[in-house]
Amino acid sequence: MKSIWFFEDVNLFKILCPHKFKAYKKEHDFDAYKKSDYIYFEDDSSNKVYLIEKGKVKLGYYNEEGDEIVKAILSRGELFGEKAILGETKREEFAQSIDNSTSICPVGVETMHDLMRDNQTFSFRVYKFIGFKLQKLERRLKLLMYKDAKTRLLEFLDDLCTDYGYDCPDTGDHIINHPYTQKDISSLIGTSRPTLNVLLNELKEEKRIDFNRKQIRIHKKIA
User: Fold this and answer.
1) What is the rounded average pLDDT of the residues 5-14?
2) Same CATH topology for 2-146 and 149-218?
3) Residue 190 CA neighbour count, 13 Å, CB half
4) pLDDT tens across 104-134, in order?
5) At what angle do helices 149-164 and 193-205 cross, to 10 degrees?
6) Where are the domains of the chain?
7) CATH number of 2-146
8) pTM of this prediction?
9) Over the stretch 199-223, which tens digit does the pLDDT of each residue have?
10) Up-side HSE of residue 9: CA atoms within 13 Å toward CB?
11) What HEC string does the chain produce?
């Protein structure tokens, strides 16, 4: 699994943005979004993929009861809308800015196909990323459907540890420096913010974790 997450740590914007390719640089622009602006809606045409230069984007959909289901919250360097590369014609999710200064690099599907056709290494990176991302989203949705809130939180913390964590040399604890707010985390694990606070404090009282706004420490004896 380490090889999978090593790839995800790469800033994909730096690798995939057409600004890196001389033939596309002049005609390429960025789009700016404020908080709550939508990049696209469910059922919109799938004709672009998007790279995040800065800010954060929420991906999700609405179930039959009208409840919002958050699939992912992405930040700087990440890619979304990538199913268009695989032939998706209509969006199956919405994408919404949750930052007041989100900057998006849109890339037309034809441009992306040209870049992939001309560069085998580039193509491999794109397909590898898509496969790993789909696996991760599928796992998260299964957690939402079949696990209780505390289990969802524990498994989410395990994912965070893989994505953003490192071992503290002094104690052996796992330190997680992450980009998410508590609102983000509650959305991702499908619970309310007050419930998340209760669960985090329970884990703290059990001496399993310590946490503040941007860092979570998972104690070695429990990790």
Assistant:
1) 44
2) no
3) 22
4) 988 889 888 887 888 787 788 788 878 877 7
5) 80
6) 2-146, 149-218
7) 2.60.120.10
8) 0.71
9) 999 999 999 999 988 899 998 764 4
10) 15
11) CHHHHHHHCCCHHHHHCHHHCHHHHCCCCCEEECCCCEEECCCCECCEEEEEEECCEEEEEECCCCCEEEEEEECCCCEECHHHHHCCCECCCEEEECCCCEEEEEEEHHHHHHHHHHCHHHHHHHHHHHHHHHHHHHHHHHHHHHCCHHHHHHHHHHHHHHHHEEECCCCCCEEEECCCCHHHHHHHCCCCHHHHHHHHHHHHHCCCEEECCCEEEECCCCC
**Res. 197 pLDDT band, cuts 50 70 90:** very high
- Residue with the two structure tokens 């992306």: 112
pLDDT score of 90 more than 90: yes
What pLDDT is attached to residue 7? Answer: 33
> What kind of fold does domain 149-218 have according to CATH?
Arc Repressor Mutant, subunit A (1.10.10)
Cα gap 197→194, rounded to integer Å: 5
CA 198 to chain centre: 25
Q: Taking the CA atoms of 171, 173, 178 and 182 in sequence, report the sign of the dihedral they define.
A: negative
The residue with greater pLDDT, 36 or 136, is 36
Cα–Cα distance measured from residue 74 to residue 70, given in angstroms and rounded to the nearest whole number? 11
The amino acid occupying position 208 is R
pLDDT at position 170: 72
Encode 97-108: b = buried (16+ Cβ within 10 Å), e = exposed. bbbeebbbbbbe
- Alpha-carbon gap, residue 163 to 180, rounded angstroms: 12
